[in-house]
Records
---
Amino acid sequence: AYAQKEGYRFFMEKEIYEQARVISETLMGRISADSIVLDELSPELLEGINTIKICACGTSYHSGLVASYLFERLAKVRANVEIASEFRYKEPLLTPDTLFVVISQSGETADTLEALKIAKAAGLKTLAICNVDNSSIVRLADATLLTRAGIEKGVASTKAFATQVATLWMVALHIGALKGTIDQQTLASEIHTLLRTPNALHVKDGLHEKIHRLSKRYLHGHGFFFIGRDIFYPLALEGALKLKEISYMHAEGYPAGEMKHGPIALADSGLFTIALMPQTLLYEKTKSNVEELSARDATILAISPKPFDLADDFIQTGDHAHPMSEFFEMMLITQLLALEVAVRLGNDVDMPRNLAKSVTVE
Ligand code: G6P
């Protein structure tokens, strides 16, 4: 079926609103009462693997970064991520105990495809996380997990990212359960949270309107820093990328604890800080990083379940008990923020200048 806007102003907007549904589809048939069922990950594929190397570009690289935290924390597998265009020419050292994972919405990104070829030529086992069946990357990889986001038309990726993260989370749980690094009780509670992911992605009444209203403050100024820690650091990178792609304003994602090593020199009231302050992961640490920026007069938009008195703007998130639920809700908010800023600036959100949906040449 050809994608239609169905009353939304932009495909990107429609795709943001579709996320709760496409996540359900991504989970469908892959979760039983007490285990993760990923038949694509055969025993042969995982045998002898103790390292995972992830390779991707753009937004898909950011979901890979999230996965690197999840693989180490949940599955206790050494994991690292590389940008495909860097990986290609660095003469990478590859050993057969490594599962090579490529992540791609389109399955056609030239750099990612070439990286996959290099890994295959080195004899590694390969897994693709991809949204397009029968794409070049899917055809080449030993195994594929399809992300089931449906057709994504907006050049700025939203729902594909959400489904990639959910899929990679399932992979981490699957491997952790197989290896016994996750006990049954923890697995049950992770599954419980996974199944509730669509709730975190549901656009609550008043949220979009609130973001529309507060977005007017963020049309001028000399730049944005999205900051977060742990998995909220790659989310900060992704939030900044969304904003850059469609608003053409300068935005950077940064690890909150690293601001003091340079970027804080930029802080003044024209520096907008989007602070990702989850309650379930390093709240106090992140808060003190944001306080340092506030003390230098930076304009702060805090996204958090906890009211933060130094914030110039505040978007309150739900009272979640799991970092991944907080992750998905904050992801949604940063997507809507980028959308609203770009719309106010009069930009073509679905066809941003200079960008292509899929980059099939080097
Ligand atoms: C392009 C798109 C991005 C995307 C990247 C990787 O730059 O504009 O949105 O994240 O390619 O694409 P892929 O299809 O490999 O995920």
Note: The pocket of 6-O-phosphono-alpha-D-glucopyranose is lined by residues 57-60, 104-106, 109, 112, 155, 157, 355-359 (CB under 6 Å).
---
Amino acid sequence: MKLIVQNLYKRFRDVVAIKDVSLEVEEREYVVIIGPSGCGKSTLLKLIMGIILQDSGQIFVDGREISSLPPEDRDIGFVFQNILLFPHMNAYENISYSPIVKNFNPKLRKNFIEELILFGKLEEWKNLYPSQISSRGIQQKISLIRALATGSKLLLLDEPLSSLDARVRISIREEVRNIVKQLGITAVHVTHDQNEAMAIADKIVVMKGGSIVEVGSPEELYNRPKNIFTAFFLGKGNFIEGKIIKSEDNFSSTKAGNIVFEGNTKFDAGERVIIFFRPENVLLEKGDENNLKGEVVEKRFLGRQIEYGIRVEDNILYSRVMRLDDPKYNLGDKVEFHIEKDSIIFYKYPQEGLEKAFKLE
Ligand code: ADP
Ligand code: MG
């Protein structure tokens, strides 16, 4: 099912929760909406479901306008953060409860439910009541399968994994995506966890303050974010304020204090910019450009990687290196390093200042 949202607005008294949101979700696409708490993610899902009504704007599913239909006529499945299983029904009964499922031909219904239980690998749980199932991960999978049992081809998930233990979350998120993909469902999944978003999304939608900031594949948004908030929100980054002192044929030099960074940008000489690069692109060896020297002032063990904070003048630049090729620096060590030129991204200095641009609430 293809979902189109056009120019949606929703205000709660003096809070504009959704501000001119337009979005297209392709058939069978797994879209993840990410953004800080309070940015309007749940409101957007509720508008699509029909639990609340927009002030203006339209919603279409497969070309049919559903903007003013009641939720039960929209044919959309949903899963919430709070697991809402009927306590007096076992897993099988929970899954087959949906009124729509009840209208199916009983034999087809039985096959469909059995198939879904198989898909969800829930056989061993199907005769148990929610209180007998200690795993919240399994409980949430039952909610997911119940949502799919309605037969809807569009599924909305509002932070479905946030109440789960970290390790369970990682295994369940893969399962959720696989089930949705195998069944050919279109999904819109809301989270505030950037790792979850990158791991399961075909397409990520970044929201801030009721608006969509940027849409793209996980790779695009992580490696080449067009918006500085996307760069900030999707993982650790180095952000340095500077002024372009030379710019020719896309090649430029930017001065930040006494450091000069070289990179590719269309900005003109004289412009105030923020240059951004990820810690993975700060390599602890000499390179062809952007060679710097500094002192290790922070060191963090991240499991697969080590993160160093390196002081250069007034800046602390972060570098993440794989442990295998780690030359093992200690606090106080002097290091030579370089920043890969092609990894540097330039942003116009935000009018409201960097702190405000990164403000989460
Ligand atoms: P998110 O899910 O991204 O955390 P929400 O969509 O829940 O954000 O909320 C967006 C904004 O709208 C917040 O400022 C929130 O306080 C406000 N809001 C949401 N629902 C209501 C409501 N029913 N009444 C008043 N304000 C609301
Ligand atoms: Mg929410």
Note: Residues 128 and 348 are 57 Å apart (CA to CA).
